Request: fold
Amino acid sequence: DVQLQASGGGLVHPGGSLRLSCSASGFTFGSVYMNWGRQAPGKGPEWVSRINNGGGTTYYADSVKGRFIISRDNAKNTLYLQMNSLKPEDTAVYYCAADYGSNSYDWGQGTLVTVSS
Reply:
């Protein structure tokens, strides 16, 4: 079975940083594009970032471009999201997803990030 477990969330002050991790199992991690998404309280889901299978190509939503960095360690089957210069509007549950193409995804358990003073 596919398992995706995000971790690393917590409470951080505006301007602070957090690093999220997503541990993956049950599929060939190094062959699959990966995504981060988020859902803020009372709002719909939002795509945040995407990385190709080798880790050399990344994509970001305009709302996080220049502040967030997606990366992966295929040897450890782990996806990361380094979040810097956090804003209150970044408060959300963050999820990782395996992207198999043709609109086929597996989403994992999320981790809550709260940005507040």
